[in-house]
Amino acid sequence: MKRLLATTAILAVLTTPVMAEVTIGGDFEWNYQNNDGTTTTDVDADLNFKPSMTLDDGTTVSADINIDEDGDDDGGSSITIARSIWSIDMGDTSSATDAIDDKTDWGKVLTNGSPSTDHAALLTIKPIDGLKIMTSFAADSNYGTTAGSGYAYSAAYTMGPITVGAGKLENDAGSSETVSNISGGVGDIALAYEKHTATTAASVDTDTTTMSATYTMGDTKLLVEAMEAESVNVVSSDEMTYGIHHTVAPGLVAFFESTDDSKTASEATSAVGITLKF
Known about the structure:
This protein has one domain (2-277): Beta Barrel (Porin), CATH 2.40.160. The chain is mainly β and 278 residues long. The protein has one helix spanning 2-14, and strands at 21-35, 38-54, 60-68, 78-83, 86-94, 118-125, 131-138, 150-159, 162-171, 176-186, 189-199, 205-217, 220-231, 234-249, 252-261, 264-277. The two termini are 41 Å apart. The longest helix is centred in the N-terminal third of the chain and has 13 residues, at 2-14. 5% of the residues lie in helices and 64% in strands. It is globular and about 60 Å long.
């Protein structure tokens, strides 16, 4: 009788309207790399738990909890409150600049994209169709990120097949970063350009410029990214990365990627692998 009562109580809790619906997903990637003659294998996997609920007034409250293959926190865990034209994401979340960058970063393993900074809270507003305005902040110490206190703001606007974005991040310690990009495509071809500038408290700039092009042929994509990093008129990195991604089945992709840096001979690397998203 006690077991029956306990089971009935558990079922009552699980079916109550205030309980969140939980979606479970994630991905698993395995790859083999050859770095200028030195070979390695690597695994990158995470499991995502995403509970969510809708309140009586239409406000949605959801969370994203990420666990990696070792059972550790995989970063990016946050809670989101959203309604109508706005949402706020709190936890280990993107800064306003990080939310619009990496337009060229198509790679599974070897592409660069732009340097990223996370923040503790990100507010997104969509006042009109195609326009997103974002602002974020970080405290002196923040869960899941080493970002120092500061704030950021950005905007992205989509006009047909073209999206343009720009933003700036300011740290209270005096450093800052800016990002601007444009991306779009016609038919099976997609192009992207992005420039990221990191400025130290001593006003020294490091520019990271990336460009990419992709071409889709059925289930196969051909991809290329060019990246150059420059500081004080000195180019420290000049990379070209190529890739072939083939969708074997929905969520299952086999890939080959190769990168070479004309400034650093030891960075000639190739990678082959497979990734499963579920």
